[in-house]
Design goal:
The chain is of the alpha+beta class. It has two helices and four strands, in the order E-H-E-E-H-E. The two termini are 16 Å apart.
């Protein structure tokens, strides 16, 4: 949400206090390497991604998969860039 107050820097226009733990969920078609694809993009923005930070769950019919990545978010611009890159990719159906 954009603030109308010019004294508040844009990166502070969030309810989050950085750094903070943040769970990112990415959904796509069930493919063997979908979790690796997500991890590769997340590591560009979060090079300190920890071991065991990624979990995967298949849909009931097995056609789709959701990958949850637990990161330490450092700033709003970092999260914005991460969401933008993941959302723009053709393999990604949804990012929450």
């Amino acid at each position: 949400m954009k603030s109308n107050n010019p004294e508040i820097p844009e990166e502070q226009e969030t309810l989050l206090e950085f750094p903070c733990d943040f769970a990112l969920k990415v959904m796509g078609k069930a493919e063997d390497d979908f979790d690796l694809f997500v991890a590769e993009i997340v590591r560009k923005h979060c090079p300190d991604l920890g071991e065991g930070a990624i979990t995967q769950k298949a849909s009931k019919g097995g056609n789709y998969v959701s990958v949850t990545v637990n990161i330490v978010a450092r700033s709003k611009p970092q999260l914005d860039a991460l969401y933008s890159e993941l959302s723009a990719h053709e393999r990604t159906l949804m990012v929450l």
